[in-house]
Amino acid sequence: MAALPPDTRLDALKSWVASLGPAWSIDPDSCTPASADASFRRYFRVNSARPGHATLIVMDAPPAQEDCRPFIHVSELFGAAGVTVPRVLEQDLAQGFLLLTDLGHQTYLSRLDPANARQLYGDAAAALVRIQAATRPGALPAYDRALLQRELDLFPEWYVARHLGVTPSTAQQADLREVMDTLLANNLAQPQVYVHRDYHSRNLMVLDGEANPGILDFQDAVIGPITYDAVSLWRDAYIEWEEEEQLDWLIRYWERARRAGLPVAADFGDFYRDFEWMGLQRHLKVLGIFARLYHRDGKDGYLANLPLVLKYARQVAGRYSELRKLVRLFDALEGVERAAGYTF
């Protein structure tokens, strides 16, 4: 068997934590993978002799591909909002290393079941409202039309063209553009608040002794549509719930948001439409991202989640006349033939 190539980043990380000295008393040889995400960032767990910090997390963010400063900034913003996030204990921006508090091993995804879902999602909704209520204009980048459009463009580029190997006709491209423009008009008209952008079961942690949930992977936060994080949470690409349950949890969030004075739509029907249309933008983006992770980055684990994301997208597109051209495109891409209907 060929020897594994040297991991120079890991060697540098171990040297860095050792250099922190007796203030943290970290054993560099205890370094084990904690998690990896869809970027170049990696996370390692290390043992420490410091009281109250038996384990810590070290982020490895190669400076050529990642910037630690947004993580530090959003950690401060969200922490000030009163939610539980990893605290930045030490930093080396030149090397791209951060020492963080450890929020444990238990993701929402690993713990959610019908018995505890209402409590866990209630905790997540309460934390989301606190984050949104702390919004300060200009504190984060805008989730503007250009960014929303770039995300949508991942769908035709990576899911349709690269993953399915299909070149849509001129008419199909025009239909897709029309649907995208319709979605963007709705998304941009929604009230603007802090948006985590990946507020879902893999980034929320079940904690012992601290306020649930622990919130991870927030470095790409922006100011954008108020329904976005609710979509991430209840139309999660990694776990599916019956629509009746989604509605129940969403109504409870909407009521909590109204009590907190957040600018959600006064009529739940209007809010739900915003939620669905925001969800379609996100799910088209996610189809593109998961395809890109496979074809560009060699990460095939996300392919198993494509069917659920596609199901969400089809359901919403089929409910609204303004979006039904997208259903026809999905049918064409998948070779689905539907019987013609006649109206007399």
Automatic annotation (TrEMBL):
Alphabetical UniProt keywords: ATP-binding, Nucleotide-binding
Limits of the Aminoglycoside phosphotransferase domain: 31-260
Alphabetized InterPro entries for the sequence: Aminoglycoside_PTrfase, Kinase-like_dom_sf
Keyword Nucleotide-binding found: yes
A Pfam entry, by short name: APH
Protein name: Aminoglycoside phosphotransferase
